[in-house]
Amino acid sequence: MRRVNPNQLSLFHCEMTPARGASYFIILSPIERVKEVVKSAKEMLGSQIPLSGTNMKAVAHISLMKFTAADDDERIIKQIVSVLSSFPCFDVIVAGNITFKHGEESRSLVLKIDNPGPIQWLHMLLLSAFSPRSSKKITPHITIARSIPTADFEKIDLSAFNYHDSFLCQEITVLKKAPGDRKYKICFVMPLCK
């Protein structure tokens, strides 16, 4: 590794040096009944085909946004509250399963969200706060298992995972993984407007 000469002026301003920040993950957390159904679905799937530990341990959620930023919870929370302060509660309708293909190598088994509009709108508002130049779109879903090798996926009876339900989304959850942490921890839960 090259040593830095303290007597030599840097060509780059100190702020330009990228610093490793915290990873923030904003999600919608379903009600306990849905989490339990997804947990049971993982166990049933794991009895049919090999599943990774990550797949087995992942708790049911709907992803809104993941990003890395300076480790400054107060600023992150302030930005989220600013863009979502008047966002109303809404129903989430779970309508059976769908498959996401990842080339020819693997598939993910997920629960379809039948009314993705409010979730996509939340995502767009968050993008405006944290990544305004991005036009990334999401397909809201609840993952049962991801990146299953195609040969294993073809052995699954998908009708066994045809779950339908609905629940009222009343809050968003902000998870955080600080530098050096191995797992995400709850940083902030923001209630939506009643």
From TrEMBL:
InterPro entries: Cyclic_Pdiesterase. It comes from the Bacteria. Keywords: Ligase. One of its GO terms (molecular function) is ligase activity. This is 2'-5' RNA ligase. It comes from Chitinophaga arvensicola.
